[in-house]
Amino acid sequence: MPRAARIFNHEGVYHIITRGNNKVNVFHDERDFLEYLEVLEMCKDRFKFLLYHYVLMDNHVHLIIEITDSQASLSEAMKLLNLSYAQYYKKKYKHFGHFWQDRFKSILISKDEYLLECAAYIELNPVRAGMAQKPEDYLWSSYRFYTQDSVNKLLDPQPAYEGLSNDLKIRKELYRDFVLSKESWKRESDPSVTRRYFYGNTEFTAQMEELFGVTDKFKGRGRPRKSLVPE
Questions:
Q1: Which residue of 20, 41, 90, 198 could cross-link 26, Cys pair, CB 3.0 to 4.6 Å?
Q2: Quick check: pTM over 0.70?
Q3: According to the model, what pLDDT value does residue 70 have?
Q4: How far apart are CA 120 and CA 141, in angstroms?
Q5: From CA 224, how far away is CA 2, in angstroms rounded?
Q6: What pLDDT is stored for residue 7 in this prediction?
Q7: What is the rounded distance in angstroms from the CA atom of residue 194 to the CA atom of residue 57?
Q8: What percent of the chain stands above pLDDT 90?
Q9: Domains, in order of start, for the chain
């Protein structure tokens, strides 16, 4: 079976997961979170990817990124991001040895309602972990950009979100209701979102399996139970 790394440089939307080595905390104070976002902005400017969503947890990071240029390298972008932040952390905390756990995980997402589902899943991480009662209470995520009048120069509005309504206020309300409707995701994780190579319906998954020669661990399913994307 080819290594999943062969998927990394393909144009498309990716859910990226990076964890601290042995799941130790990689952020300890506000300055750490801000430093990571500054490094992320630098990498975004250099590699010209689109950043749709993120959440920075104590010991891991979730990003949703779109690579739009076939010459851009997701692998190189993530290498620079992880190395730059690790250097900052090691200098500040006198840390030695491995910092990140293995290599980052990358999941290719279909550019439709599954993109909304993945966004909702990662933005509910702080609630699921008991770090916040509501997703809007957590500072280090993209949630408030999509549901409130919060300015975030790092983020690019994702296409499935923009398709919800032509009215910005209604669009924010629809997305907020969609995220909050995911009751099970507030309480427990869903391996079908994170332990796979592709996230989409059966047709999308089959196409990606054929393209990359990789068998997904979780087969794609039909449309999400609550679709917000207009037919």
A1: 20
A2: yes
A3: 67
A4: 11
A5: 29
A6: 58
A7: 15
A8: 63
A9: 4-212 (3.30.70.1290)
> What does 75-115 look like in DSSP terms, one character per residue?
HHHHHHHHHHHHHHHHHHHT--S--B-SSPEEEEE-SSHHH
Are the C-beta atoms of residues 74 and 106 closer than 8 Å to each other?
A: yes
pLDDT for the residue numbered 219: 55
Residues whose CB is less than 8 angstroms from the CB of residue 70 and which lie 6 or more positions away in sequence, other chains included: 11
- From the list 75, 63, 35, 66, the residue with the least C-alpha distance to 194 is 63
Are 118 and 228 a contacting pair, CB within 8 Å?
A: no
Cα(137)–Cα(123) distance, integer angstroms: 11
Q: Measure the N-to-C terminal CA separation of the chain; round to a whole number of Å.
A: 37
Cβ-contact 1, 197 below 8 angstroms: no
Asked if 220 contacts 203 with a C-beta cutoff of 8 angstroms, the reply is yes
Residues 229, 163 contacting (CB under 8 angstroms): yes
Q: What is the pLDDT of residues 127-179, one digit of tens each?
A: 999 999 999 999 999 999 999 988 899 999 999 999 999 999 999 999 999 99
Arithmetic mean of pLDDT, 48-65:
97
